[in-house]
Amino acid sequence: MKLRLSLAILVALSLTGCGSESNSAVVTEAAVEAVPEVAVVEAAIEVNPEVLAADLKSLGCYACHAIEKKRVGPSYRAVAQRYRDQSDVVPLLVAKVINGGGGVWGPIPMVTHPHLKSEQLTPLIERILQLPAE
């Protein structure tokens, strides 16, 4: 709401400064409501692999995965390369971690992790997807 109000005020000030007094604008609630929502673009974050590795180790993920190389499961860089350009993939990957899965990376299935919560996994998976390709 503050962003929309700020945009409406900016537009009003621009209009008042560009002509005679007859062109002056009055900011009303209707004008504020008419300002379209602005999409918030998140800046790409630079992922520190050492910090990410420590966070993943704390949850036990390193028993089967590593950032740079395949272990029992794929490397996190390979995961990032496969999924980074897919929209809405984070919830899918969160569900796969919690519920387990198989057949995507080979014959060994991913075990379930029902003790992990979506709130823990979502930021980690988002960071994994920011890793540069192998």
What features would you describe in this structure?
By secondary structure, this protein is an all-alpha fold. The protein has two domains: 33 residues, no CATH class; 81 residues, Cytochrome c-like domain (Cytochrome Bc1 Complex, Chain D, domain 2, Orthogonal Bundle). It contains six helices and no strands. α5 crosses α6. The longest helix has 15 residues. The chain is globular and about 30 Å long. The relative contact order is 0.13. The N terminus is likely disordered.
Apparent shape? globular
**Alpha carbon gyration radius:** 23 Å
Low-confidence stretches: 1-28, 34-43
What is the straight-line distance between the termini?
42 Å
CATH architectural arrangement of the largest domain: Orthogonal Bundle
Strand content: under 5%
Tell me the total number of β-strands. 0
Query: How confident is the prediction overall: mean pLDDT?
Result: 76
Residues in helix, %: 40-55%
The CATH topology name of the largest domain reads: Cytochrome Bc1 Complex, Chain D, domain 2
- List the total number of helices: 6
Tell me the domain tally: 2
Judged by helices, strands and strand pairing, the structural class is: mainly alpha
At the fourth CATH level, what is the homologous superfamily of the largest domain?
A: Cytochrome c-like domain
Largest sheet: none
H/E element sequence: HHHHHH
CATH class of the largest domain: Mainly Alpha
